[in-house]
């Protein structure tokens, strides 16, 4: 008797399922970084560099893996690359103006790579035909979806601003309702405007420090809220406002023309505009001029986004003189990382000081206020966005300018360089105003934070002595200026409002996620008016011991980076879409005493 083991029919070994752990790990890390980068509280430069680095790793590494992966058939590798190239080219022809091919690559390709990886995971048993069709759809859908939007730049924390492509832009909505003012023939004997006490004569006020004196307002906004006086659309710009003799002056972009505009401060009615054929537009930060008009002895001095400097009669808008400093010097505007000429002119003893330079011709100019002729010029580096500021130390008047080459001081009449801060205080994109403290000290923004230093005479020159440097855990202002009051510094640490002790440079508190906004100090009342990036108006106590938010409300709609202006009890706000005037109620009798009693 024999026993025979039955023999089974030979079976094919089960096919190995491809494993796509590498793209899953790569793209999972990419999106995890985007979720966690905000809580890391990185400064703007570090955030930008890290995002670009992570993006570059994905854009380079994923195609290398795709082209070398043995889990993909040679034909499918070529097919996938071809679909990406065709999809990017097709989307670049469809996308609306303002979203370029680099934008499609930076935003769209990570989405396409992610969709393709998901398809690889769910379609491992699909037929070749279905697999390839699905892959093509996964790659094309994100890029096609982006063509439905118009890119309108970035927020302060570098988030993309997208609008449906069929929506009109803020500029188009303004131009649709704007009625041009016919140029009036001014009489020859028109009385020049003159500034009065309480007027707001230029960028950040008369002293360029964001401080308001002689004003006290009601802080209980439930009982005495700010009253809306007028509100209207304006042309896009990041310019602030100047308020003199019942007139409000600002700059706007109106199509292909750059406009200096005068409004009735009480009603918002346009009185006159001076327009030049010029347009500045930059994808990240948007359209329009950046600088604020400066009033001096009946005249208005302005600097446009392309470097055009005007001197106008403030009463009529009549041009006295004009200089295109960039064109005259043969310079070209900086191309990489350039956000427009942002310097608000400064007038000191008959000299108009303004920055307007470019590749190879980086100049801080001194122009004769009467004629516009060049009095002097000085190398000041490229890509500067701060404005000159006057200071008097040891009975000598100086003009401070914080630029790419570092903080420097010049003699206003001759342009002679008086002193220059050490190279350690250089800033790659100088945007923040230095703040003068008393007779011989100042606080200046450098890369990564604030520095306090003393300026003393040293023989025939000057010596700079650092007092402290608060960088890692202080305030890191980017384009958000700060104020100083009663031994404390108040300002933005990136997108969060905070306070530093002036003596030590140590942070005392950090609260209030208001985005990249701006701040005014009401020095006689110990309160701060903060304009949030979202358009909210926030009232804070200027209290170095703790953060106290007193009131807030939505004052404007849209991204608000412009500096506010306060004159004669009225607060003027604007952004790239609209401008508004709010009347701030005066402090009711007894409220100040009650408020101080509550603080005690």
Quick summary:
The protein is 21% helix and 33% strand. With 600 residues, the protein is of the alpha+beta class.
In terms of structural class, how would the helical and strand content be classed? alpha+beta
Oligomer: single chain
Beta-strand share of residues: 25-35%
Biggest β-sheet: count, sense, barrel? 5 strands, mixed
**Taking Cα atoms only, what radius of gyration do you get, to the nearest Å?**
29 Å
Mean pLDDT: 87
What's the N-to-C terminus distance?
110 Å
What is the helix content? 10-25%
Q: Spans of 5+ residues with little confidence (pLDDT < 50)?
A: 1-9
What is the tally of beta strands? 37
Total helical segments: 8
Order of strands side by side in the largest beta sheet?
Answer: 3-31-32-33-34
Shape: globular
Layout of helices and strands:
Elements lengths: L20 H16 L7 H25 L5 H21 L6 H22 L5 H19 L2 E6 L5 E5 L5 H8 L33 E2 L14 E7 L8 E3 L2 E8 L2 E8 L5 E8 L3 E2 L3 E2 L6 E3 L2 E5 L4 E6 L5 E6 H4 L17 E3 L2 E5 L7 E6 L5 E6 L9 E5 L2 E8 L2 E5 L6 E4 L14 E3 L3 E6 L2 E10 L2 E10 L12 E3 L2 E6 L2 E6 L5 E7 L4 E5 L4 E5 L4 E6 L7 E6 L10 E3 L2 E5 L3 E6 L7 H9 L1
Parallel strand pairs: 3-31
Antiparallel strand pairs: 1-2, 4-37, 5-6, 6-7, 7-8, 9-10, 11-12, 12-13, 13-14, 15-16, 16-17, 17-18, 19-20, 20-21, 21-22, 23-24, 24-25, 25-26, 27-28, 28-29, 29-30, 31-32, 32-33, 33-34, 35-36, 36-37
Helix pairs in contact: 1-2, 2-3, 2-4, 3-4, 3-5, 4-5
Could you list some keywords that capture this structure?
37 strands, 4-stranded antiparallel sheet, alpha+beta, 33% strand, disordered N terminus, 8 helices, 600 residues
């Amino acid at each position: 008797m024999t026993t025979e083991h039955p023999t089974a029919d030979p079976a094919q070994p089960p096919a190995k399922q491809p494993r796509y752990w590498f793209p899953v790990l790569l793209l999972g890390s990419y999106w995890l970084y985007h979720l966690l980068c905000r809580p890391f509280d990185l400064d703007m430069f570090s955030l930008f560099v890290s995002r670009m680095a992570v993006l570059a790793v994905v854009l380079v590494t994923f195609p290398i893996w795709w082209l070398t992966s043995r889990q993909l058939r040679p034909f499918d590798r070529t097919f996938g690359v071809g679909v990406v190239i065709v999809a990017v080219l097709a989307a670049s022809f469809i996308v609306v103006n303002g979203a370029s091919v680099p934008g499609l690559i930076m935003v769209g390709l990570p989405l396409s790579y992610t969709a393709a990886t998901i398809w690889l995971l769910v379609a491992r048993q699909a037929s070749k035909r279905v697999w390839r069709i699905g892959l093509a759809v996964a790659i094309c859908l994100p890029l096609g979806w982006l063509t439905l939007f118009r890119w309108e730049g970035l927020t302060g924390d570098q988030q993309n601003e997208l609008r449906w492509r069929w929506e009109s832009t803020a500029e188009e909505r303004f131009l649709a309702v704007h009625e041009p003012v016919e140029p009036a023939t001014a009489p020859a004997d028109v009385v020049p405007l003159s500034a009065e006490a309480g007027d707001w004569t230029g960028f950040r006020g008369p002293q360029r420090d964001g401080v308001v004196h002689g004003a006290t307002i009601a802080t209980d906004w439930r009982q005495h809220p700010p009253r809306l006086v007028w509100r209207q659309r304006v042309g896009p710009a990041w310019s602030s406002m100047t308020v003199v003799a019942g007139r409000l002056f600002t700059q706007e972009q109106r199509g292909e023309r750059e406009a200096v505009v005068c409004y009735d401060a009480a009603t918002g009615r346009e009185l006159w505009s001076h327009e030049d054929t010029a347009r500045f537009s930059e994808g990240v930060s948007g359209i329009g001029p950046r600088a604020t008009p400066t009033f001096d002895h009946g005249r208005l001095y302005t600097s446009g986004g392309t470097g055009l400097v005007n001197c106008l009669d403030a009463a009529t808008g009549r041009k006295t003189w004009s200089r295109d400093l960039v064109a005259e010097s043969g310079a070209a505007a900086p191309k990489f990382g350039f956000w427009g000429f942002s310097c608000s002119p400064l007038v000191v003893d008959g000299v108009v000081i303004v920055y307007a330079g470019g590749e190879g011709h980086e100049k801080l100019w001194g122009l004769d206020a009467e004629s516009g002729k060049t009095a002097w010029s000085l190398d000041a580096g490229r890509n500067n966005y701060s404005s000159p500021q006057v200071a008097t130390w040891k009975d000598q008047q100086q003009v401070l300018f914080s630029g790419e080459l570092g903080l420097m001081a010049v003699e206003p009449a001759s342009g002679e360089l008086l002193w220059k801060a050490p190279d350690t205080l250089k800033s790659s994109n100088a945007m923040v105003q230095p703040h003068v403290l008393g007779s011989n000290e100042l606080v200046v923004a450098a890369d990564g934070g604030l520095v306090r230093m003393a300026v003393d005479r040293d023989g025939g020159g000057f010596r700079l002595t650092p007092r402290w440097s608060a960088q890692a855990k202080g305030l890191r202002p980017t384009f958000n200026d700060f104020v100083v009051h009663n031994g404390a510094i108040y300002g933005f640490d990136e997108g969060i409002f905070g306070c530093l002790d002036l003596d030590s440079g140590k942070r005392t508190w950090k609260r209030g996620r208001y985005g990249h906004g701006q701040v005014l100090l009401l020095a006689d009342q110990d309160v701060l008016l903060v304009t949030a990036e979202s358009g909210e108006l926030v009232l804070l106590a200027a209290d170095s011991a703790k953060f106290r938010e007193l009131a807030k409300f939505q004052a404007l709609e849209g991204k608000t980076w412009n500096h506010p202006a306060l004159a004669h009890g009225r607060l003027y706000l604007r952004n790239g879409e609209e401008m508004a005037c709010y009347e701030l109620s005066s402090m009711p009798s007894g409220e100040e005493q009650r408020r101080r009693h509550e603080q005690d």
